[in-house]
Amino acid sequence: MTKRPLIHTQSLRLAAGQEALVTRAEAGDGKVGFGFSLQLDATEARHMALFHAGLRAERPTITSVMAHPWETAYLSNSPIPWECEPGFSRLKWLP
């Protein structure tokens, strides 16, 4: 039996002082995807995480609001440099 997907969204204070929402989606097969929203839109972050976990076919469209490295990477179809925000590694996710 395949596990149900798990979705968890948290708020993160960016190094520059702004707030972002970060979502982790785990597919039933264990594949994990992350998403973010610098506009504090939980749906945007959730859809991005679901896409990266292989649970959503359509790649979400975002609008750059800060020219943050996460936005720049996502918009150029590059890997998102999560590590550029020190707080990202300190987020605790549900098991």
Helical proportion, percent range: 10-25%
Largest sheet: 3 strands, antiparallel
Q: Which strand order spans the largest sheet, edge to edge or round the barrel? A: 1-2-3
Determine the N-to-C terminus distance. 18 Å
Enumerate the spans where pLDDT stays under 50 for 5 or more consecutive residues: none
Mean pLDDT, as a whole number? Answer: 95
Q: What is the total domain count? A: 1
Total beta strands = 3
Percentage of residues in strands: 15-25%
Estimated structural class: alpha+beta
Order of helices and strands: EEEHH
Instruction: Output the radius of gyration.
Output: 13 Å
Continuous helix count? 2
Overall geometry comes to: globular
What does the model show?
With 95 residues, the protein is α+β, with helices and mostly antiparallel strands. It has one domain (6-90). It is 19% helix and 23% strand. The protein is built from 2 helices and 3 strands, in the order βββαα. The chain has helices spanning 42-52, 69-75; strands at 6-13, 19-26, 32-37. The protein has a 3-stranded antiparallel beta sheet. β2 and β3 form a beta hairpin. The longest helix has 11 residues, at 42-52. The radius of gyration is 13 Å and the shape is globular. 25% of the residues are buried. The model has no long low-confidence stretch (mean pLDDT 95).
